[in-house]
Amino acid sequence: MKVLGISAHYHDSAAALLVDGVPVAAVQEERLSRHKNDAAFPASAIEWCLNDAGIEAADLDAVVFYERSMLKFERILTCALRAFPRSWRSFPHAMKNALAEKVWVRGVISSHLEVPRDKILFARHHESHAAAAFLAAPTKRAAILTADGVGEWATLTVGHGERRPDGRTDITLLREIRFPHSLGMLYSTFTAYLGFAVNEDEYKVMGLAAYGRPTMTELVRQVIRPAPDGAFALVPEYFEYQTTASRSYSSRFVELFGQPRNPYDPIDLDTTEGRRFADCAASVQRVLEDTLVEIARALHRETGLADLCFGGGVALNGVANARVLAESGFERLFVPSAPGDAGCALGAALYADRIYLGNPDRDVPDHPFWGPVVNTADLARAAREDDQDVTELEDGPMIERIADELARDHVVGWMDGATEFGPRALGHRSILAAPHSADMRDRLNRDIKYREEFRPFAPVVPIEAADRYFDLPAGGARLARFMSGVFPVRPEWRARLAAVTHVDGSARVQVLEREMAPRLHALLEAYGRRTGIPVLLNTSFNLSGEPIVTRALEGYSSFRRCGIDVLAAGPIVVSKRAASPGRPLKESATWGSERLVGSGAV
Amino acid sequence: MPPLARVARLDRLLLPLHRWVWSDFDRRVRKILAFAEVESDGGRDILRAAEVTPDGLLRRLYLEHAIDELHHGDLFRQRGAALLRSRSTRLKTLFNGTPLPGGHGLDDLAVQDEPDYRLLAFLHIAEKAAAGRFTIYRDLVADDPQTHAIFEEILRDEVFHMNYTYTQLARVMPHAYRRQVWRARANRLGKRYLRVAAAIAGVFGATILTLIYFIVLPPFAWLAKRADRRTPPGWRPIPEARDDSPTRQY
Fold first, then answer.
1. pTM listed for this prediction
2. Residue B103 CB contacts under 8 Å (≥ 6 apart), including other chains
3. Residue B161: predicted pLDDT
4. Which residues, other chains included, contact B224 with Cβ-Cβ below 8 Å and sequence gap of 6+?
């Protein structure tokens, strides 16, 4: 049975394909269209999934959309009515936006894929999150928690899932918190207040929080209050996201927290204003963590289960995840590689397959590599045409060569096999570097990633050595499998892991098992043999404002534009030549300009 | 001093409008920040062209071009930010948390679907128009040496971009390059018409929806508010027996 899952239209659209209950392909649209957080209908992602599996759209047994679009439209309309007459400006925009394409999603899918309309199914948004978290996790029974900005109405749900011995699967969501009360929207509102992009830069707030002290938690608790039944409620006077799309916080919010940050001003932590923003980030981070821990603790008491599966965009908050693992009572915490809306494509497909269609449960391979495979021949050809230094090596010598480069403090663009599904680079599309000095961190921020200096880099370590360098609690290695938890670097190693140790002594570590990415695992070991520390800095292979690279030529163009020294893809190693061809190219290309003056050019 | 690009007749006619835009501080900042987005978007599109073209020389030239455009985006962004910092302006509140409307770099051109000759013709026309307009802007910001210098620098690059796109078009399409340029001009005009038509339709649509909002919605709004007041915040149980027909969108 072939089931295609689709998420689209809000942010980060994606497609995922199941064949006989097992994922065979999944990719975010942005990785193919090259528009970051592409929310368009994922036509390219769908086409790639079908081509990769060698099937036609007509072969599909079901196509599942990740949410119920009319239910979402009902929420948008109801919120506009509730905010009458303050919503008069946003109403036309919201209606045009919804009525243009979003509510006609069945027709859109049907016309794109030419599949009969009765094959098109709909899961609820948080059911898709729950399925992505539970059905992709190696657990038989688990509590389920989902939290994001908003789906149709729900913003947070709790429940449990079970894989029965007879092959049947149950996912039961017990209760939900509804819009406008939303942990995701709370965090996004502070993201906007702190001058970052909503739905994109929430992780910057988490990074900034480490520089501050949670001195404003009481103020934050004025805008999010506990409900009598153990849930929470946002105080609507402080927010505007339910009435307008242009600003998410109100004037009262500004009265409470002070003037918001101008997005174009750098954050200077040496100034009072810079520290105020850091304290604000630390405070909302603390309140988010406390709230999640309380909810998870209550869920643990209620279900008595050992495992928790956590999905939704809020599950990308690694600091909160680590606290949930440590304080909620659950022994293991599973966060999928794509807990956000992109992952809902896979979640919706799994939900339909197991729950709607009643197919027997199948184990889902425990890795994130479901996207396009790198074509190394393209890379070798392009690099040779550009007169770069290209070497082709067997696997063993290749690993040794890259380890040498890293030990010489060279920065390596690393492309290996299929792309990751989800926002993290987990070893197949990574920029790797030595993790030892703060200079390397600064160099990467300045010359390669072109990003704010307060943002930390993540380490990757083989599972065999993880406990030596990082203070992982029980269950920590599992949470760190997809880089979903932030844990302390052991104090004695912080100075020697300065490039990956955040200001508070923590790191968002990836703990790597050999089976998941054998070549990267071998590289870590080879690097360890040279330096004594088998840890590398691992950051996503993309430049500022761009999605993570997918194809070899995208990696190559990034390599050409920034300070990466070496590019490795499969057996191909490209080293950057010292001289850039920039100016000579410009000169040679304008040789005919005089001739063309009368022909339309200058 | 870079060579002067030819200023289009329409832009010469619109000179008073351009002067009006650039004479006001807030409008100037808004314009500069909007350019930052458009140049960066355009840079990413041309980067895409570099990644998909099978032609090695074009790949290198596109890459140069993309680096220039991304650099222009940075120059505009930094200048806009510096201007914002230099003076208290109402824009500071306007931009909070709301990314500026950018407009997509290459007029929503699907770069990966276009053959090189069409892309080159399009780029040539677009760069030529931009150079003409930037020449006007450069002269209008003579009172602001830093912004003036940015336009000077960008104009130098635009000249290179115009020339290489034309020479390369002549190389890849030796017998029909002029026709391709004219076709690109016609396409650009057509797209401009569609943009204007869509904007007018948008205004009509918004007007009708606003009328509906104030005429039809008030009683429903009253009911929605009343229902909202009766709903306490907190957990909502999810009934086991809710309608789970998988084909429903509700």
1. 0.92
2. B34, B37, B38, B41
3. 94
4. A78, A81, A82, A84
Q: How confident is the model over A44-70, as a mean pLDDT?
A: 97
Q: In angstroms, what separates the C-alpha of B143 from chain A's closest C-alpha?
A: 23
Looking at A427-482, list the stretches that DSSP marks H as alpha helix, in order from N- to C-terminal side.
Answer: 438-443, 466-469, 476-479
The Cα–Cα gap between B159 and B5 comes to 8
**Contacts of residue A291 in chain B, CB cutoff 8 Å?**
none
Question: Which runs of consecutive H residues, i.e. helices, occur in A36-135?
Answer: 43-53, 69-82, 90-100, 105-113, 125-134
Does the pLDDT of residue B74 top 50, yes or no?
A: yes
What is the predicted pLDDT for the residue at B86?
Answer: 82
The verdict on a CB contact (< 8 Å) between B85 and A262 is yes
Of A125, A539, A73, which Cα lies nearest the Cα of A351? A125
Across the interface, of B96, B205, B213, the residue whose CB is closest to A192 is: B96
Q: Which of B192, B188, B132 is nearest to B162 (CA)?
A: B132
- Identify which of A64, A70, A157 has the shortest CB distance to residue B249: A70
Contact (Cβ atoms closer than 8 angstroms) between residue B25 and residue B85: no
**Interatomic CA distance for residues B60 and B49, integer angstroms:** 10
Average pLDDT, rounded, for chain A: 93
Q: Which residues contact A82 (CB under 8 A, 6 or more apart)?
A: A242, B221, B224, B225, B228
ipTM: 0.86
> pLDDT tens digits for A364-416?
999 999 999 999 998 999 999 988 999 999 999 999 999 999 999 999 999 99
Asked if A557 and B246 come within 8 Å (Cβ–Cβ), the reply is no
pLDDT digits (tens, 9 = 90+) for B121-175: 999 999 999 999 999 999 999 999 999 999 999 999 999 999 999 999 999 999 9
Question: Mapping DSSP to helix (H, G, I), strand (E, B) and coil, where does residue A163 land?
Answer: strand
| Residue of B7, B70, B236, B242 to mutate for A, most A C-beta atoms under 10 A | B236
Q: Which two tokens stand for residue A553?
A: 């030529």
Percent of chain A predicted with pLDDT > 90: 87
Min Cα–Cα distance to chain A from B20, Å: 25
Q: Nearest-CA residue of chain B relative to A559?
A: B63
User: Taking 70 as the threshold, does the pLDDT of residue B105 lie above it?
Assistant: no
Point out the residue among B92, B166, B238 whose CB comes nearest to the CB of A596.
Answer: B166
Question: Which strand (E) or helix (H) includes residue A145?
Answer: strand A141-147
